[in-house]
Structure formats: C-alpha cells, structure tokens
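Design a sequence for this backbone.
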C-alpha cells in the first residue's frame, strides 16, 4: 500500500495541496492518505510549528506532501520554521529542484536541469550569536554530509541518463569549508564513475554559476552545491520554468521524503480560489518518480500539466487566462491525465 502524509500548512497550501492529492489519487487509486498539521498557524494554536504527531505520521508513511508556511519577518520566541524543522528533524539531507521548460510560460523551450542542494548544514543550522553591536552566524560544512550529497547527485546523473555534474562553490574565498565540500563531492562522484558510468565533472564559483544559469542554462544538467547557494541558485533558475510559482521540489532522506512547492503561503490571495496548484502537482510527481519509482506515472502527471498549460490555462503570451482558478487548473490537469 502506497501511503502519503498530507500537510496543507498555511495560506494557499490549504487550496493547492488538496488539488495535488486529487491528481495523485486519480493515477494511484490505492493511495492511502493521512493528514497532519504544521506551520505558523499550528504554532499559534499548539505552541510548536511541527507537533511530534506530525513527525510520527511522516515516518510511518515514508512520504509527505507539504503546502506552504507563513513565517514572521522577525524573531518570535519559541518559533522555528516548519519546513526547516522537518528537514532537520527527519534528516532530509538532499533538496532536489528540477528546472525545465514549460510550454507558453518559459522564455525558451530547451532548458532541462536539476539542482541538488545539501539540505542539512551550511548557514541553515541557525547558530547565531551577538557580541555587542556585532552579529555572528556560523556555517557548518562536514565531510560526511558533503560525501553524502555528492553520492546523491552522482546517482541522479546516472538515473536520469545525464552525463555532466557541475559542482558549485566559493572555495576561492572559503578555501577550508567550500574546499572540503568540493573535494568531498568530487571523491563521491569518482566512486560512481569507477563503476563504469562516466560522469563529466566540472566546477564553477557560485557567482559565475549564477551568471551562466541566465546566460547559458543549457550547459547544465545536474548541479550540486551547499545549502544557501542552492537555495538562491534554484530560485534564480526557476525563471526558466515561469518563476517560483511553478517550481516543484523534493526533500530526500534515507527511506523518507517530503515534497513541497517552492512558493510561499501567499496570504494576499489565500481563500480566494485563485491559487495556482501546478507547482504542488509537479511536486507530487516528484514523489512518484523518486520515492515510489514509477517513472511512467510521474511522466503522465507532468505531461498532463503541460497539456493543461498549452490548451486551457495560459495564453500565447504566457499569461494566465481570464477567470483562472484553482479548480479550473485542477480540472484541466485531470482532463489530460
């Protein structure tokens, strides 16, 4: 039995995640779902952004689909971002962000890459301190985590029949930490290449990688980088698939995964029925591909999204059609499945 923990979260998460679940249940009629709570509103109600019950349900199911989280712009005592809490509490050490051209929406139709982000370390360990009028933030890079994300990225090259892996770092300024990351990833890749699958490895400084992502996106197949760099570069690269509102992602651990659309909770449109569910649906497809290992069904979902964009949801200028609603988008995808 395929099981999924469904966590709508805050804002438009409560509208787009049910749409994605309907798509999943259409293609996987035996899918069993359990619902759980997490997010800012959960914190206000229960005093924690991720209750222990939610962790238990995710572990039990082995896969989760999370909507969106609202977070305050200033420090709130006792609050920690729900998504960071789940990533670290479940050791979801790899973040996969595919970037590919979509009809009508994308500025060009030949982009196809995936950014692999180390998801457990870097500045996101949230160690900050104050000394007088100075603020310090610690950044952690370990050999263990770097080897682990290197193996994940290299295996992804193999699984997607790609040939090139680009390591992105800033070792010219951070020779110890980013040097360790670069060298550990390269070592991990060499282990895969030693098994007769040739992976071409190159490396770029993060600032040059940002330039090339816009200037020459087709040079990339799989990129691997540290947590903060991956966060920034994947948002930048999402330009090629229509922006963050269309961007899917998947957080992977050992035997456990959590998919999430990249967009936020969009409180300005929450409850109006106009939120775009396509990123959530594409994130659900990532669960099907990378967790449940059903490539035909994942491709079927993605194909239905492409058809919906082309025929019902966007005009020739890449703009949403008048009267676009969450329900219209859902019914269009279902029609093309």
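Sequence:
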């Amino acid at each position: 039995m395929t099981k999924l923990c469904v966590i709508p979260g805050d804002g438009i998460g409560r509208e787009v995640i049910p749409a994605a679940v309907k798509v999943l249940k259409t293609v996987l009629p035996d899918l069993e779902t359990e619902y759980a709570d997490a997010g800012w509103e959960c914190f206000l109600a229960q005093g924690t952004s991720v209750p222990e019950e939610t962790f238990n349900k995710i572990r039990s199911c082995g896969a989760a689909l999370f909507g969106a989280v609202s977070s305050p712009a200033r420090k709130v005592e006792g609050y920690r971002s729900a998504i960071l809490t789940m990533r670290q509490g479940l050791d979801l050490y790899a973040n996969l962000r595919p970037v590919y051209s979509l009809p009508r929406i994308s500025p060009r139709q030949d982009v196809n890459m995936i950014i692999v982000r180390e998801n457990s370390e870097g500045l996101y360990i949230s160690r900050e301190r104050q000394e007088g009028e100075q603020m310090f933030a610690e950044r952690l890079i370990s050999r263990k985590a770097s080897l682990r994300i290197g193996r994940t990225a290299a295996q992804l090259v193999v699984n997607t029949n790609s040939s090139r892996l680009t390591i992105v770092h800033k070792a010219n300024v951070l020779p110890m930490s980013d040097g360790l990351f670069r060298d550990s990833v390269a070592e991990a890749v060499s282990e895969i290449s030693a098994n007769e699958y040739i992976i071409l490895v190159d490396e770029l400084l993060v600032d040059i990688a940002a330039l090339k992502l816009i200037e020459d996106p087709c040079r990339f197949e799989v990129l691997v980088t540290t947590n903060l760099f991956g966060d920034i570069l994947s948002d930048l690269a999402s330009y090629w698939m229509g922006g963050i509102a269309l961007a899917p992602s998947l957080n992977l651990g050992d035997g456990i995964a959590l998919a999430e659309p990249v967009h936020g909770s969009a409180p300005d449109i929450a409850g109006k029925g106009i939120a775009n569910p396509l990123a959530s649906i594409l994130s659900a497809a990532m669960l099907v591909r990378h967790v449940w290992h059903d490539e035909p069904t994942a491709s079927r979902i993605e194909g239905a999204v492409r058809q919906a964009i082309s025929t019902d949801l966007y005009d020739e200028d890449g703009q949403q059609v008048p009267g676009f609603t969450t329900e219209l988008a859902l019914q269009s995808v279902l029609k093309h499945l």
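The longest strand covers residues 3-9.
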